[in-house]
Amino acid sequence: MNHFFTPGTGVHYFNYRGKFVKLERNREKSLIHKDGVRKPFETVTLTTYGIFGRSKPAEFWHSFLASATQEGLSTLKTGLVVYQAIGPEWKRLGNPRKKRPLESVILEGNTLENLFDDVVEFLASEQWYTDRGIPYRRGYLFYGPPGTGKSSFISALAGRLGYSICMLSLSERTLDDLRLNYLINNMPPKSFLLLEDVDAAFAPRDPETPTQQKMYEGLSRVTLSGLLNALDGVASSEERLIFMTTNYKDRLDSALIRPGRVDVQHYFGYCTPEMIQLLFMRFYYPKKVEDIDPKQALAIKQKELLELAKNFSNAVLSLKKNISPAQIQKHLINYKDDTQAAIESVEEIK
Ligand SMILES: Nc1ncnc2c1ncn2[C@@H]1O[C@H](COP(=O)(O)OP(=O)(O)OP(=O)(O)O)[C@@H](O)[C@H]1O
């Protein structure tokens, strides 16, 4: 769904979730007073023609309006606000950051779209949760090797949906169970909770070796049960979106990642050939063709670029190594003006 209310007055048609929607935009003759200014008054009428089957029209419109709102918010020219915990409060970390386009994060297959849809669907389902007495929260665990886009995706997603990020490090020495509980239950509205490297805070319940036990000693004052309590939260009727990341999923206690605390687990992996090509294309040609030149003059160049991207991908694959998107990015930055040199020097990727 794109460019919702950009069309001018009159009748427009578009497709949302497989159904045709008619949008009629009428400007009334009378003006309204708003903030001391006289503004034109508009009526927007939406009609859909579809067979709904088991999904109800109300759900369709609810999801539609939630999606449209999110998309509208994402176009506001505000940056991404990141909060960090200082004492018992969330404080803004520096100035709002420039939003990263969601499409600039390259994930395997339809992962990006599926995760995005999952979050949007959740945000549109408050009533569903309330009706069933289920706490209105959703937890995501992103795991996998370093530099595969876990944090980038979360930031880009927050930016896209007009959300802020509350970042919390569980291994921070001044954090204890009480403060953690207070912070998690008193987040600014419309924000994601981001717990990075969740594995780093707790010793496994059954450490494999005494050395492993030692590694964790004194690392954190937060206990696992303290975290679980805080996540389950007293104010569970409030919307809560929690993202956890780790490089070592196997080190996490199963209680932390059981359904209800973590509802979606996703592995962020090394580059597939398709991802390498997309990273290459996106790096040298960051804008969509239609955004740059509607007459498609640049599509020819795009074709050439696709050939180069394939060559680059083949060259990287010939290294027979696991390569992360971060490694590809670093390499391409070294050759930002020379596609051919980027291909010829792939063995520099380490
Ligand atoms: N899938 C990706 N698509 C585009 N860029 C990526 C991707 N993965 C990583 N990068 C780039 O690599 C850098 C590091 O990525 P990021 O911090 O998101 O990785 P991560 O998976 O969160 O790593 P870690 O597990 O170490 O926290 C960023 O600058 C980002 O632009």
From TrEMBL:
The keyword Transmembrane helix applies. It catalyses: ATP + H2O = ADP + phosphate + H(+). Belongs to the AAA ATPase family. BCS1 subfamily. One of its GO terms (molecular function) is ATP hydrolysis activity. GO terms for cellular component: mitochondrial inner membrane. It holds the Pfam family AAA_lid_BCS1. Keywords: ATP-binding, Hydrolase, Membrane, Mitochondrion, Mitochondrion inner membrane, Nucleotide-binding, Transmembrane, Transmembrane helix. Residues 136-272 form the AAA+ ATPase domain. InterPro entries: AAA+_ATPase (IPR003593), AAA_lid_BCS1 (IPR057495), ATPase_AAA_core (IPR003959), ATPase_AAA_CS (IPR003960), BCS1_N (IPR014851), Mitochondrial_chaperone_BCS1 (IPR050747), P-loop_NTPase (IPR027417). This is Mitochondrial chaperone BCS1. It comes from the Eukaryota. The keyword Transmembrane applies. The lineage of its organism: Eukaryota, Metazoa, Ecdysozoa, Nematoda, Chromadorea. Residues 1-105 form the BCS1 N-terminal domain.
